[in-house]
Fold this sequence. Notes:
The chain is built from four helices and 18 strands. The strands form four sheets. Strands 1, 2, 3, 4, 5, 8, 9, 11, 12, 15, 16 and 17 form a twelve-stranded antiparallel sheet that branches. Strands 6-18 form a two-stranded parallel ribbon. A two-stranded antiparallel ribbon has the order 7-14. A hairpin with a 2-residue loop joins strand 4 and strand 5. It is an alpha+beta fold.
Amino acid sequence: MRTHVIVLIVAIASSALSAQKNEPTLEQVMERVGRYVASYGEKAAVVVASEKYSQSVLVDGADMGRPRDLKAEFAIVRVAGGAWTGYRDVIEFEGKPVQDRKDRLVSLLTNAEGDASELIRIANESARFNLGPVSRNFNVPTAAPFFFLPREHERFAFTRKGARKIDGIDTWEIEFRETKRPTLITTRAGKDVPIEGLLHVKPDDGTVVRTRFKMRNFADVEASPEMRAPQQRPPTNPTGQVGTVEPIRPVETNKMQSEADIEVTYAKPPGIDLWFPASMVELYQGPIQVKLTPVMARTTTRAKYSDFRQFGTSIKIVQ
Length: 319
């Protein structure tokens, strides 16, 4: 009996060693992630989804009323050079249509000579519907993958945290922390704002299943007549669109905490053999002025994506 037990233990140990030997390294998995992100726009071409976006705000701990609900069209767009980015066009606000908006994004994207400057204008225009202490125009669900283009990997420290199932999919959980300076995001005054967070990816091909990234203390500056707010450096976005994160107005305070935390989960829409954003949850916290007194405000948002439509692959967005 004892001999059989020993043989069984040896067999189990041998099987475990064999599986471990065939497992990719963290470096190999991140190389796959880089290739996946770089090729994403070519595969996605032009995809437009319907977005339902809800925002809730607390100011100094008090609820500021019912959530603000928006409906929008969200597009993943391939631009010149094979790069890609995402845009939002709000078409309904508080249950009422926004004039002359429906299908505006689709019309622009299906034009053989689409204009990138018009896309940027639409994105900035839609940003005015955002609530809370942090003004933003980069809060699109495809923002995080830009950080993991192959050329940006050297600026991060990556650590495998373990394995996790996301909606039934086996993924690696990889922690990332930006270590290189200057950072991808800086304040207008030049202060570095490093990002950190988690990636959940399929180790066999680098498919991104979930992203979560955080920024902290970007509003921790001395009182100033100008806003010293984080902005994404232009090279990260091939269209030249510059995303910003900033308090709504100057706050007379020496130091107040600020935070942004964005999590996006991806899935395969019916009929399309590609992974696209399925949901997004955001948290923004920072100072605002109420009757000349600085107080903390907190915004939480939830977005859902559906009704994905894929258009032709010959569209070129002119920069």
